[in-house]
Queue: 3 jobs
Job 1
Amino acid sequence: MSSKKNAELPDRDALLAFLAREREERSDGKIGVREIARAFGLKGEHRLALKQRLAELAAEGVLEKRGKRLTRKGALPPVALVDIVDRDRDGELVAIPVEWNEAESGPPPRIHVRAPRRARPGEPLPGVGDRALVRAEPDRDAGPNDPPYSGRVIKLLLRARHRVLGVLHIEAHGAGRIVPIDKKQAGRELAVAAADIGEARHGDLISVDLVGKTRFGAPRARIRETLGSVTNEKAISLIALRAHDIPEAFRAEALEEAERANPATLRGREDWRELPLVTIDPPDAKDHDDAVHAAPDAAPDNIDGFVLTVAIADVAHYVKPHAPLDRDALERGNSVYFPDRVVPMLPERISNDLCSLRAREDRPALAVRMRITAKGKKLDQSFHRIMMRSCAKLSYQQAQAAIDGEPDETTAPLLNSVLRPLYAAHEALQHARNLRAPLELDLPERKILLKPDGSFDRVVFPPRLEAHRLIEEFMILANVAAAETLEERRQQLIYRAHDEPSREKVTALSEFLGTIGVKLAKGQVLRPANFNAILGQMKGHEHENIVNEIILRTQAQAEYTHENYGHFGLNLRRYAHFTSPIRRYADLIVHRALIRALKLGEGALPETPAGELAEIAARISAAERRAMAAERETVDRLIAHHLADQIGARFEARISGVTKSGLFVRLSDTGADGFVPAATLGREYYAYDEAAHALTSRSGVSYRLADMIEVRLIEAAPIAGALRFEVVGGSARRPPPAPRKGGPSRTSASPKKFRGRR
């Protein structure tokens, strides 16, 4: 509003309307006397009259002054600090403002909280108990019982600042202390007054709120929730679930929907029940969402080629958009796998029953049929909504043993008709894979085996079989076919994307390789083949392990996105996850998109704006990172618990990280991670060489990433999953017979010094 020479003082309604309008338009919420006077062109005596009128409105309880800001009484500022306190019946998060004067403004308004549009790497999803900054606005579509405000998370504040999970230890005098489970907080205990302990018992896993610090002694905490005894066999994975706010129980509406679901019929489906599809999975798999088949192509234009079929469980038939099952699945984002339990994305009625491709039972599926040449080049593809019947449930080991000449009673009848064609088609796909040259990193899988009582038994590293590679290549081809088909139909989708390494990481890699005599030109356009060439050059070399490790760390993290920028690691221009809708929400979106694009019946993706699809992609990317962190921490805690009674034992280890404060190590037998403080390395000064990933003493003794050393366990914190070691031997690099004067050579990374001590 422009300034007026003889402006009139606005009346009550005009002032309130202006404040409401400006609140929605201003991102900073700064609306005071100056802004109002400028907008209405008020000066001199009119400005004094404005102050008087605003004071009268405040006295009436219509307006509220917060600092220099004016707002309607009981209204939220545009940006508010909130605590997320609940979920509504649809599973959406509900928050209330942290700063609110109930005596003057009444009960705090509720805010429907939406997730961030783009989740940053490592950023957790918002959940109950979190504190966040939100941009809030009145929700014009809210019903009488709905939150009157809607807010989008600007920044999720770490819950560790106000919420801590830990183990309660009750002292003789009745007061308690809390030992945090977070590895980063190890050694930082909290104090709980005896009066605040309530019914909690010694050794219970509890959730506490921080209530303040004392000048002397531990910070004070108040028990919020008791989660049960930490000695319970399920406690270790429960810690991860609570620490990462992973939903464990399905809402009643979702369970009821799952129980009401009826098995799919042939209506609207092609009958493929005579096709001998087989499932090939880990031996302990409880759900089976993919089945495969291969046969020679009889078409004259594809001599010696193959027809491949990949059939995937038709989850979209049972999980409809925006229904209770769908809301729970989106909240989870994916299934989470712990050694002692699985937290599924969908209830067992769906995941382990109706959608699991059980042998010799009719199951609905979405199938892709692809023709490939003898050299593995894909000629075409077509998608079909089918009814199938798996002819066998096989494990990787079973399938491989049969091909290797040791069939059992299940695989013997399938050897020539089913398994040999699958392996022949896989051999053809290997030609195409070699030409594509995806990134070839050697990453052994670690698996924790438990005893019948749920306690730790041992760690195994299962061998990677040709059967694993066969299924992997079939799934990659099907995923590519899904992305291509949707792009051809101009249908929006969620891609699985993997960006190329950042310039900073490539520069750091180049500098490191230079220290071992390997050249990698800075600034060149890198492809996976460039990394593979370096890995091949280092095969059998003393630096093989460290090069593998650093090339892995150079890579970006894959994510889900509605915008396609390719998959660097697989060296593919377009890629989408299609093959696991039982355990990944992204795959369910792709299924729905295919159903919509190809007009395959019910369960299609509804009209979805690009912004909403971007938000879904961000949410499930964050959920994936959350699951990975929870799974990793649970394994760390299990192994630390197993090693807790082995203090003083020696282990062979490989250096997995080097910092100025010490060495991160990984034990060879269990894969357990631990830390060697620099103070335990010796009496000398050590220099941290960032480019070389090494700590080097003045006398030339050095510890470098990927070196093998022998360590002694000196401390274990099972609940935090933390292990501390000291070096007692191994292949620390010793100085040459005649060291140069001036100590170790320096690099452009400007090594930092510290003094080690025993």
Job 2
Amino acid sequence: MKQIIECVPNISEGRDMNIINQVTAEIEKVEGVKLLDVDPGATTNRTVITFVGEPKNVCEAAFRVVKKAAELIDMRNHHGDHPRFGATDVCPLVPVAGITMEEVVEYARQLGERIGNELEIPVFCYENAAFSPERRNLAVCRAGEYEALAERFSSGCTADFGPKVFNERVATTGATAVGARDFLVAINYNLNTTSTRRANAIAFDVREKGRPMRQGPKVTDKPVKDENGNPVMIPGSLPGTKAIGWFIEEYGIAQVSMNITNIAKTPVHVCFEEVCNKAAARGVRVTGCEIVGLVPKSVLLDAGRFYLAKQERSLGVSEDEIMKIAIKSMGLDDLKPFNPKEKVIEFLLEDNSQKKLVDMTCAAFADETASESPAPGGGSISAYMGALGASLATMVANLSSHKPGWDDRWEFFSQWAEKGQVIKNQLLALVDEDTNAFNKIMAAFGLPKKTEEDKEIRKQAIEDASKYAIEVPFRTMQVAFSAFEVVEAMVNDGNPASVSDAGVGAMCCRSAVMGAYLNVKINAAGIKDREFADKMVQAGAEIEAKAIQKEAELLVKVNEIINK
């Protein structure tokens, strides 16, 4: 899975669009980064910027944001309602897909160190990137704001990176807090009531902070206070959430508006279920919800799988189907249409400029293969045959999970279907990757060869591309062979009425392995590194032999079942 992180820098300028545009222009100069949102605030004199991409690219864009903001914003002249202590006040990195928080912490610290060293701006690391427990809290890092920086530095407080003294440079730029935090999901729950009071009561039931404890049962009773005079709170049921109730004039209903600050600990679907339960206890029904802004794909996939499992249905269906279940289960389209292509970060990052083979219709794919172009060729077709084999086995698993009388076995078949989906998706990716490998070879042959240095570079590029053109079909062999496990399970335990489909799946997998092996062998012929080439050919021969044997064994079983 591609690693994706989000960056949400807040710069201390919310009024001058010329400055704001110059800062955001730096983001758009970095390849592989997508600017999602720019939200300036005149009263706060602050702009919240959101962009996403692969980690290294995002960190480069973040560095450029901090650099440009430092050039254009003089903190000595800055005034606004929001707390701040630097031209770029905060710069958090957020994991979105394919990456752990621990990895994001490392990126955040590396970014902070670079800002400190190269831009000479003091950097305080906060949240998960903090080097000390107290600095996890942004308020501690930003104590006293910009106006207190000089005094803090002179009294021995030092930043994690960058200058240790309040010099003329720091007087202009201020400091920056660089952190790593969880993804924040903003979601509003639609209620079948117009009562803000009821909505607030539900919000207080669930939000982590909860509600003040009172001396009696009435909301008008005095709150209970601790020895320091602070209100004693009754915690809500959902950790990592903030919530409030309000009335929305546009829709004519009350809502519970919630920020989920830790979707790993408290997923969106868990929050939805709990709000529904608390609302029902107060005689109110949740009719649906709306997601404000964008979410990672995992939010919808996790929710969809949760509701499929509640229905005792197979989870081994396509991602589109899983997301559809999530949308309908949580009523995300209650007030207006919900289009995942417009709300899911990964979809917004997709590069649609290049035509993908797997996105074609069956007919278009066949026509493209039959054209004068040498690609797609046998490697792509082999990967696609493997994907069809895995798909057939997955289909048998899904059909078996619905077989009357087999209700108690749905989870067994669901697990096999999920495994089949993973294999299918890997092979579909290899359909296009095999063509990409061919294109790499063509590009290497097209390199200049005027000088001796050119010739050496070209020679090495051809060798590297040729090795890759072996590795891709070899990977196809490995993945296609792994699909036999799902096929075999369905031959042995699946719905007997679908055993012929499992048999065809076995034939597809064997053909995929054999076809990909032909590509391994033909590409190995031109490799100068004979040790590498011979090793790949030998390993491929072993996989091919196993695939032929496995197909033969399975077809014997398939025919026995059919003949019965």
Job 3
Amino acid sequence: MKTKLIKYFRSLIVLFLLIFGSVSISGAALDSKGTNFWLMFPGNLSGSDYYQALFITSDFNTSGTVSIPGIAFSTPFNVTAGTVTTINFPQLVDVQTNDAVTNMGIHVTSVDEVTVYGLNRRSATTDAFLGLPVDILGTDYIVLGYENVNVVNATQFGIVAVSNGTTVSITPTETTGPHPAGVAYNVSLNEGETYLLRNGNSMPADLSGSLITSNLPVAVFGGHQCANIPAGYYACDHVVEQIPPSTAWGKNFLTHPLATRLNGDTWRILASEDNTNVSINAIPEPVINKGQFIEKIISAQSIITSDKPVLVSQYSNSSTFDGVTSDPFMMLIPPYEQFLAGYTVSTPAAGFIQNFVNIVAPNSVVGALTLDGVPVPVVAFTPIGASGFSGASMPIALGTHNLASTLPFGCFIYGFDSYDSYGYPGGQALSQIAIVSTLYITPRTSVNRINTPHCVNGLVKDQNNNPLPGIRVDYERIGVNPGVGFAFTDVNGIAQYCYTGTNIGQDMIIGTTGSLKDTVYKTWENPLPVEFSLFTSTVSGNDVTLNFATTEEINNSGFDIERKTLSSSEYAKIGFVPGNGSTNEPVSYIYTDKNLNSGKYNYRLKQIDINGNFEYFELSNSVEIAVPDKFTLSQNYPNPFNPSTKIEYTLPDDGKVLLTIYDNNGKAVATLVNEVKNAGYYTVEFNASALSSGVYFYSINYKGLNKVMKMTVLK
């Protein structure tokens, strides 16, 4: 299950564990895909060919169940990845009962994540909606639908509870039955129960802007039983969309006109806060307050921006608005930072002679974005001002369609028939972009060798400095290694983006989420003359063996072996291992550092190329020579010798040591050690250049223990 919205996460996690089982918190995007949905169908006009259906699709081969507990309906389903499974109901399951609690919630559960679309179909009045999973639902909503125009007066919204003990507070914008405008009233719901409020007042009654809050997350649907859009035009059509919680609203939107329409489309922009400033193509609109909206006819592509979060919907107008085959539908438009990188969508199986997909895509993927595996032609796209995006309208056949790109893009499905239509967004991310406050990318500057990976971390926080999960950060590389990509923030609010530079020079990496932007820099240098695959150490007694290996070498002269103690600030050279010049074959090396005293040591390699250039490679760990566990005296080496030899001994504890050399007559000829020594390993060199050939003895006395061994001087 995807990460819960931060706003209610802390207070509800225990309840969610009880209701939905174990919760796995991940860095996955909060989006319209899920494994648990509670949906409903707000009522359409009755008439011929009237039914409701669900379209279910997935990126995986998966299975699940659709049930309506209130009518004892349950059916299993299977979905093949990249296709759509249709669920038809044996009876009408829309909610027509006004201002009453019913039990018509539709429960969709699945093994893997699915996307669910709802189709409320009736001849000459149809619409569809994108279902939102339980894990992105919230407790704070503002309704968006459409007004009454004295034809069919039935502006409406619906609510589904996903948990028992849900209390919903509703503040309607219009006096509806016993409920005065602007006065909150409560409705109590249990899991799967539904509530519909429909207003039949005369024009311009409109439940848009009604406030809905709850103690537990709920699903909310806005729309109209059969709307004429705009006022004064005919005919009416059912309009419906599931409304996202206000924390998932945005500030940056791009519009593309509906295909075939001649005089533009109706747009509504709904405010979540007071004193909201909205601009369309950089032209300011009148300031609106919470629950208020701007309604405009927009005939061309446009850029919509606001300084506070808003909800944006595109409406298809009634057929008489421009005299073309069409009718109203309602289609929410996500902010472009909530686009996805792939969609599987479907038209209704029949009943619509014209079907289209609108695409809003970054300019960098125009020509590469595919529809059913075939690139959408570049000529189909038109740039949307200076936004960096382009829009296209593509006709599609009846059935299932797949769209994919390397970068997120917007996808919107709709269709027309005689006095009929439907439309819905193909999907969207639903992260809390409304409360994003800061974006900070690290590292600010860094240096890499070419052909190695480099990662940047974009940290996203809210106004209270809390990290936000599930936020999409877009990245653009400008410089010697140009490119684009994106990542979603994890539970720590970090969106990590990695790439491998292949060209020497500098890249500027720009991260963007919404209107926030941050820039860091990356310098790429020549590759190392040696690529290491191994550098390790092993200890045997008081010997340290270094093992190192390379995967390739360029003009490699060899390696100085350097060592230092922890108390020393400088490395000292202790040996040299020849390299293998230039080779792309793996090479292994070994070096043993012998007869070390007890203590901790650090090692590094100084790789030297044929021209004298060098690089250092440090062993990642310190090496420790432990204190010996017993007192020993070893045979000198070499033996026989001329003129020098080495004598080794070990001390398990601190103590006075006397090491003496005697001739064959028992006369002392040299004293090598006569002092207190710490516990450890020792090697003493003895030079016999002043002695004649013969047999000699060396004796060690330590804490009352005495040991004697023989050695031979041979000249």
